[in-house]
């Protein structure tokens, strides 16, 4: 692995081998998502607790101050929306030259395995890896499921993660599931957990994040369950404690309880 690739990955994955990525890229298919109408106002208080920001080039340029001291993972796939026919019909939207111009530490894209656009999105991943290897730029593959949330089981997610790794992804983002260790053990590159739609209780989040970390994930890429939370700063602090301090769900819950 080249020095540049190692350097960029070392900014994303902390010395303890773990990471907390903060995604705010939801607007690329959802539009003005609740609490992301003004992205900087939402994430500014959360800066001490996450390790990298997952964002599109448009929001990065228009809403994020260039002096931000956080590495950027640039979302480079899109082309669909919630009102369109199929969220899986994505293309690559952003060039590697653009990513480098924006000083991104990595790029990320979605793949939709099992969909009508499986080959297309896996081709996007392959092309992206080919280009990024030339410049020492890490690629994070996101195993998206669109609206079909019932696909979140170990067999399906394990298949998705392994295929992404086989095609050259440096990190894979996927959903937590029962028997999550089967997903991680079958994937030869680091796995981070997605958050998905906001859940009913904070405890649910703490429990799946803690379980996933115990089963081999290196961290999370989790947004809505943080910045849509009434106590978003405390939620970010609690998740940081699970990721970087090995806090239990009970200990994380006490951080939130102090706000009530």
Give the second-level CATH assignment, the architecture: Alpha-Beta Barrel
C-alpha end-to-end distance: 48 Å
Number of helices: 12
What is the chains' assembly state? single chain
Low-confidence stretches: none
The domain tally reads 1
Percent of residues in beta strands: 15-25%
* Largest sheet entry: 8 strands, parallel, barrel
Rg, please?
A: 17 Å
- The count of β-strands is 10
Percent helix range: 40-55%
Break the fold down into its secondary structure elements and pairings:
Blueprint: H1 3-12, E1 19-23, H2 27-30, H3 39-43, E2 52-55, H4 57-63, E3 72-75, E4 77-78, E5 91-92, H5 96-101, E6 106-111, H6 118-135, E7 139-143, H7 154-166, E8 171-175, H8 180-185, E9 191-194, H9 202-214, E10 219-221, H10 224-227, H11 232-245, H12 249-257
Parallel strand pairs: 1-2, 1-10, 2-3, 3-6, 6-7, 7-8, 8-9, 9-10
Antiparallel strand pairs: 4-5
Helix pairs in contact: 9-11, 9-12, 11-12
